[in-house]
Design brief:
With 164 residues, chain A is of the alpha+beta class. Chain A has helices at residues 11-26, 30-34, 66-77; strands at residues 37-46, 60-65, 89-103, 106-119, 122-137, 140-150. Classes of the chains: A alpha+beta (164), B alpha+beta (421).
């Protein structure tokens, strides 16, 4: 490892990717957001307790493979996903970005997330640690993994049907 | 003493909006329903070993379900008998003694007071045997499902469940070993609505086509058709406030093993083989009929492959706890059921997030003054009686809602029994 580079992805480039991913999710730009994923993608939000260690035996809030990410996006685009109709108004901060290592050739990036969601229900603050795995595919950065460990995952959560 | 004349608020074909918004009615519901009748608390598989415990609830009350050293399941209150401090702060675990952090009083896993520091000061002042943790007076289980009742006397659990015991039997027989486990952890979904919005929705067969049309559109799901006009499925009043959508007529008409799960037998060959081994000729009927869709009044919903537990917190705050059922000796199914559960229910689920949106919009709606009443009239003139003497209706009818309210009224206003709804 030299400087801020672990694989061939540097911190600045990783940061720009995370900021873009956050902006597209905030803007409900579903097609552009979906295009950030690799074909073998996993999108995971553990629930409380043991869920954070084994999503194959414990329920998670969200544990999508690439196919289900596609289904989720198609559902949002029907216009009848009532919990996102109207869309939540969102703004999130991505900060404390660090290169954490590599995983099967993908660059592992950690960050902290703070999102403010406004709906008729009221304003909800979502916070958590995020872990991404980034990979260069045809010269473009893509994400093969996104895990969000919410700080309040052990408690009852509001509906979370936006792209977290 | 009743705070309200409930008889005037529940009619055969409609209910008054204040039933969802009045904090005094909520307080009385806790007293008359959640602290008097049988309430579902947990499953024995959540505390498999001696001294295992898990924190559960009965309405807003925290209750510790323990398995004591003798193997008995207890429901204890999380409150030190000395100065009321919490004695348990972890959501689950295994402990030989609950120790209060305030003055060090310790309790056995059956709730008995084991001792306290500097006990000489209590010599001749108090009797240790009288100072255990608060206990839910009655604890009983059916097929491993543990219920508690704060009333020392009253109908037995079997009397309370009545015909609804069949739902547990049907669920358990989906396991080659005849048992289910609750071992997949819980999602907790916070809902800004009255608990009865959830209770009513669980067996409301009128809403799926509308609330969940986005899923049916993108996921090739056959669920929608079960709740359509041409479905042969029925809804049923099981008595005691328990209600169901009986999907079997439709599954039997289609006659496809595993069709109830939206798959075919060749996708789960090991499971199907184990079922045929266990149940012989009876296996085909089980594999076609599938799992029940039954709401056990007041708080347990058996939703085919999931369990939902409704926890009222206040008049307009509720938590819906959700987990995936796991079948003993059904590993091949368990993995699939878990993935389906994660996809469909919980805060980000393709299904439940939209139900929750509806509860919350309903709750905002009942705050409006007019027209005051909510309508439950659908199918009132086409109710019929099945071979077992239960009232049934078309699967989209509001018969189940009427059944819930009729029972609710008998609990809240016993004098009204037989005069309304």
């Amino acid at each position: 490892m030299t400087g801020t580079t672990i694989t061939d992805i540097e911190l600045g480039e990783a940061e720009q990717f995370l900021y873009r991913e956050a902006r597209l999710a905030d803007a409900h730009d579903y097609d552009a957001w979906e295009a950030l994923w690799t074909d073998d993608a996993v999108y995971w939000v553990p629930a409380g307790g043991e869920s954070a260690t084994d999503p194959t035996t414990q329920v998670s809030v969200l544990f999508d493979n690439r196919s289900r990410i596609g289904t989720r996006i198609r559902q949002l685009k029907t216009g009848k996903r009532h919990s996102q109709s109207p869309n939540s108004s969102l703004c999130r901060l991505i900060t404390n970005v660090e290169l954490l290592g590599d995983h099967d050739g993908d660059t592992v990036v950690g960050a902290a997330m703070l999102a403010v969601e406004s709906r008729d229900r009221g304003t909800t603050i979502w916070a958590g640690r995020c872990e991404y795995r980034l990979r260069r595919v045809d010269g473009e950065l893509r994400m093969s993994w996104k895990k969000i460990l919410l700080v309040d995952r052990d408690r009852a959560l509001n509906t979370m049907s936006f792209l977290i | 003493m009743t705070v309200t004349n409930y008889d005037a608020l529940v009619r055969p074909d409609r209910v008054h909006g204040s039933l969802y918004t009045d904090p005094e009615i909520f307080a009385e519901e806790m007293e008359r329903i959640f602290y008097r009748t049988w309430v579902y608390v947990g499953h024995v598989s959540e505390v498999p070993q001696p001294n295992d415990y898990v924190v559960k609830s009965i309405g807003p009350q925290s209750v510790i379900m323990t398995r004591d050293r003798a193997g008995k399941v207890n429901l204890l209150q999380n409150r030190c008998a000395h100065r009321a401090n919490l004695v348990c702060d972890a959501p689950r675990g295994n402990t030989r003694a609950f120790r209060c952090q305030y003055h060090g009083w310790t309790y056995d896993s059956d709730g008995a007071l084991l001792g306290m520091p500097y006990k000489q000061g209590y010599d001749g002042v108090i009797e240790k045997s009288e100072l255990g943790l608060g206990r839910v007076p009655r604890v009983a289980e059916y097929r491993g499902f543990v219920f508690g009742s704060f009333a020392a006397d009253g109908p037995s659990l079997l009397e309370h469940l009545g015909s609804a015991t069949d739902a547990f039997d049907r669920l358990c027989r989906l396991s080659p070993a005849g048992e289910v486990a609750v071992s997949a952890g819980w999602l907790q979904h916070r809902v800004a609505a009255n608990w009865k919005m959830l209770l009513e929705n669980e067996t409301d067969g009128y809403h799926p086509q509308f609330v969940h049309s986005s899923v049916f559109q993108v996921a090739n799901s056959a669920i929608g058709a079960l709740y359509g006009e041409s479905s042969t499925a029925v809804c049923r009043d099981l008595g005691g406030g328990h209600t169901e959508n009986d999907l079997r007529p439709e599954f039997r008409r289609l006659g496809v093993p595993m069709g109830w799960f939206g798959t075919t037998a060749d996708k789960v060959p090991n499971y199907v083989a184990r079922m045929r081994q266990s149940y012989g000729a009876g296996a085909e009927e089980i594999l076609i009929d599938g799992s029940p869709h039954v709401m056990i009044f007041p708080n347990l919903f058996i939703a085919e492959i999931q369990l939902f537990v409704i926890q009222p917190l206040s008049v307009n705050q509720t938590v819906q706890h959700v987990t995936c059922v796991q079948l003993a000796e059904g590993e091949e199914m368990n993995r699939r059921m878990l993935q389906q559960t994660i996809g469909s229910v919980g805060p980000a689920g393709l299904l439940l997030a939209d139900d929750t949106e509806m509860y919350e919009r309903n709750q905002r709606g009942v705050a409006s003054r007019l027209p005051e009443w909510l309508v439950l009239a659908r199918g009132l003139k086409r109710e019929r009686i099945d071979a077992d003497g239960h009232t049934i209706g078309n699967n989209t009818d509001e018969l189940t809602l009427r059944a819930i309210w009729r029972h609710w009224l008998t609990l809240m206003d016993p004098m009204a029994e037989g005069t309304a709804a």
